[in-house]
Amino acid sequence: MEQTTTRKVSAVLDGAPYATEMTTRGLHWLADEPVDHGGTDQGPRPHEMLLGALASCTAITMRMYADRKQWNVGRIGVHVTMERTQRGAEIETHIHMDIDLDPTLPEDQRQRLAQIARSCPVHRTLENPIHLSSGLLGPGLAD
Asked: What DSSP line would sit under 38-74, residue for residue?
């Protein structure tokens, strides 16, 4: 069965060197660069938001699963690290995720949650083909 979902985020950079207002579903937040990279450090870097998307999706997915199973798992911590190596135009990216669960949880629950973590929608998106395209909007077409 084929299923298509659409998500949309808009970004507007208007003023400060790199502080960019992000909007989705009426929610607003900022992306920026640190001062040492010419920004004003008002928000996370774009790559940090990518890692945050993976970390938060993973935690949410594990919590949803635990709630359905009625497991009291307590705090769920997800720590994501990205290492990028660039050689000319080629970029190799390695993303590593560490999951922090209550050590007193039964081992079978810990292992099942670790397995569920790999099935979060953002994780699956990053592991499968991504097709990027871009274009220019005509005057008056931005929303």
From this structure: TS---S--HHHHHHHHHHHHHHHHHHHHHHHHT----
